[in-house]
Amino acid sequence: MSENSTVNIQEAVKQKYAAAARQVTSGKAACCGGGAELSACDPITTNLYDESQKGSLPADAVAASLGCGNPTALAQLSPGETVLDLGSGGGIDVLLSARRVGPTGKAYGLDMTDEMLSLARENQRKAGATNVEFLKGAIENIPLPNNSVDVIISNCVINLSGDKDRVLAEAFRVLKPGGRFAVSDVVVRGEVPADIRRNMELWAGCVAGALEENEYREKLARAGFSSITVEPTRIYTLDEAREFLTHSGMDVDAVAPQIDGKFISAFVRAVKPATAVAQPAAQKSSSCCG
Fold this sequence. Notes:
Elements: H1 3-25, H2 42-45, H3 51-55, H4 59-63, H5 71-74, E1 82-86, H6 92-101, E2 106-111, H7 114-127, E3 132-136, E4 149-154, H8 164-174, E5 175-188, H9 194-198, H10 200-204, E6 211-212, H11 213-223, E7 226-235, H12 238-245, H13 252-259, E8 263-271
Parallel strand pairs: 1-2, 1-4, 2-3, 4-5, 5-6
Antiparallel strand pairs: 5-8, 7-8
Helix pairs in contact: 1-7, 8-11, 12-13
């Protein structure tokens, strides 16, 4: 993918999620709550958190959840660990993780969008979370040192990046030897029509940028990870495909049957080997995504 294409994708993503944050702060529900303007990703973002989790968090943190899974329910977190959430949005997964790692642990959230960072920090204040820090930056250029994080989580964000190899290399760099990669993401099984890949609205809605399952495994391995697994958590049906294609401007009747059952939400796990040598930080660039 060309640098210009990557920048265009990132700008589309940034605008989409800035709009989502503004929608929440204005008192309206974002995508997972059924907001009309962001309903292109409704089938993916609904019903991810149970009532006990949602009830213990600020309402705006729940309303701003735009992910495709619940990595905090699947990742194994222990007291005292340091966790990093790539593309932390309104902060729901960071706040849930902070409770699990406890006062001796630390939960970082990384996001590129000022509006989401402002919302997340307000949610942190409301939750009274003192072991949380939200960082501004790109998931391709993580602003943390080598070997500094025990667990990396992410919720339907890596598929938004136009440079996934760089994201995975950075994740590998900041993880401690033996550290775990445990993310929810949208994954593809089989071929997807080219029109979907080119559609910016679907990039920002977590669909068009999704990697094919075997390609995801290969990229993780190339970055240095081992013990790679991809566990499906939800398979999207034809009816759900119709729903998120409705807002894309595409011919729904023509495209939907071609992607029935091919998009899945999955929990992707991998480990940085205990003997791994730290890699240098990725070179800084003007582009960003998070």
